[in-house]
Amino acid sequence: MKKVTIHELQKRKAAGQKICMVTAYDAAFARIFDEAGVDALLVGDSLGMVVQGHTSTLPVTMEHMLYHTQAVSRGAKRAHVVADLPFGSYQASDEEATHNAMRLLSEGGAGSVKLEGGEDYAPTIRRLVRAGIPVMGHIGLMPQQIHSTGGFVVQGRSEEDAQQIVRDAKALEQAGVYALVLEAIPMELARTLSAMLSIPTIGIGAGKHCDGQVLVCYDLLGMLADFKPKFVKQYTHLHTTISQATRQYCEEVRTGHFPSEEHTFRSMRLVSSTEEEPERANSVYGAPI
Ligand code: KIV
User: Which residue's C-alpha comes closest to atom 6 of ligand 1?
Assistant: First the structure.
């Protein structure tokens, strides 16, 4: 199956078609999202919070990103895979940034990388793009910079901050990003940026005027019962579904109702002569064999 390319994502903007992106961290979820028709899967460093249980994305390493990017790449047949450059993997030098971005493509199987940063990162982005690495930018709320920007707060509300975000967006477009994530900024600012830029904007908490949207999959699926920020719409409540299924499983194990006959192998000596085919374990751990 043909993969969605960065050029196809860009064409969507010209055609007025919205881009649909969601985060994914493993092969099983990637396969479901891919088959459901998402355009791009983001292996976000948000995995540090939703998968690893940290309170920020800062502890995520290159090795974590490679591990999860490889898993997502195995599950994605059609969707474009974007991998985040984690904190500390691109800030120290352009050489290190190039080396790490290349690893996400060559070892991880990603089709592009994403990095957080405004106009100060334009030279790094230029270097990556020259090396043949497609880069998605990310401005507005940048979770890797929470210690310098005051936490997970909406950005660009004052005129001065909004002007800085406009300068960042222009600089990144000129540096060669193929698309730009706008996180947690006012809708009016996102509309201005989307109209001003020729590259697609992909919003998260940035309103409806962006050229596409991205959500953390655990948020859209309602996996975390006690976490629902304003910009998130929960399309289902997997927390409840999973919890109920697990309670039922425990109940059936404890009462002896699981496993029943249909989930049980029998010794060949006890299988009747009419059952000619040997029983097979058709799969283990969800993977067909
Ligand atoms: O890491 C992530 O999941 C992200 C999205 C929130 C855009 O960067």
Answer: 216
Q: Which residues are CB-contacts of 15 (< 8 A; sequence separation ≥ 6)?
A: none
**How many angstroms separate the alpha carbon of residue 26 from the centre of ligand 1?**
15
Return the number of other C-beta atoms located less than 10 Å from residue 150's C-beta: 9
DSSP letter at 40? E
Residue 287: Cβ-neighbour burial (10 angstroms; 0-12, 13-18, 19+): exposed
Res 227: pLDDT: 82
Residues with CB under 6 A from ligand 1: 23, 42, 44-46, 84, 138, 181, 183, 204, 214, 216
Token output for 162: 């909004």
Dump pLDDT digits (tens) for 137-188: 999 999 999 998 888 999 999 999 999 999 999 999 999 999 999 999 999 9
Taking the model in full, what pTM does it have?
0.94
DSSP E strand stretches across 26-98? 40-43, 80-84
